[in-house]
Amino acid sequence: MVKGLVVFFLAVTVPTAVLAAPAAGDAASPAPAFTRVAAFTGASAFAGVAASPTATLSSTAKPHLVKYKLYFGRCKDTCLVKVRITNISRRTLYAVSLNARLKVNGKKVGSCYDYVGTIRAKRTRWGSCTVRTRTLSNMWNRWLDGGIRFDRDVTTVVHSEYYR
User: How far is the C-alpha of 51 from the C-alpha of 5, rounded, in Å?
Assistant: First the structure.
């Protein structure tokens, strides 16, 4: 059961080509060769249930370029978060990174980061990171003592760039 599915998307257009000054006889200035676009996508999954983000897009929003599923590895006093990221576009994605925030019983117990790299069109890459914090260890010990429940919740944000 997936609760609280959240999707973020932010597009920023930045010209990356340097515009040269036109020559004395040339009236038109050259256009940028390409633009770099950054996209943020996020989702949340509870207790190891796999989730793929879906969203209702407004007329100004760009389509999502990735879909992914969340998995847990060992999650006791340290917690391994694994994410399968699939590029569903026909463009190569560059500088793909993953941020994961882990909550136990609604309390943030830690976060982790992983740089995934480049994902070619229609391909899949795996990202994983491990949360190791004193708060997570204390929550696990309290669960072992029978004092609390241990309901995990992971919120992830995937950042990528592509060129038009």
Answer: 8
**Among candidates 134, 150, 158, 5, which has minimal Cα distance to 75?**
150
Q: Note the Cα 24 to chain centre separation in Å.
A: 48
Q: Which residue has the higher pLDDT, 107 or 32?
A: 107
The residues near 72 (Cβ < 8 Å, ≥ 6 apart) are 48, 79, 80, 81, 82, 152, 154
Q: What is the overall mean pLDDT for the chain?
A: 76
Convert the pLDDT of each residue in 94-112 to its tens digit: 999 999 999 999 999 999 9
* Residue written as token pair 């040269």: 20
